[in-house]
Amino acid sequence: MKVTLEFDSWDELTQWMQKNATVEVEFPDPELIGPAKKAPDPELIGLAKKAPEPEPVQEEPQAVEAPAPAGPVYTLDMIAGAMADLIDQGKDKMAQVSATIQKYGVPAINELDPANYAAFAEDLKALGGKFDE
Question: What are the extents of the domains in the chain?
């Protein structure tokens, strides 16, 4: 781990050290040490190696078309309406609708994954369900 601290003055450094140091440190008089020297810029003395800049790659924009739905799009309301019509036809249809719901592993249609709406609607159509498409 590397930690870098910067101080604006010698006094600021010594104050920080006196507050935060865990060992006793004596500081020499900054007048005796002289001004701090900054390391030369590596680019100025030719030590820095610059990586060649990659040439920009021009990509042609490609048109993205949304795939057309494979069939009709069903909503939860459409499915619920078809189910209600089937259930109104009697106990036999009610049992068939319940079995269809269980086939999809959900306790109620409001928990049916929207990705399964089309397949579920097709199952209801096989039972005689009607959809306004």
Answer: 76-126
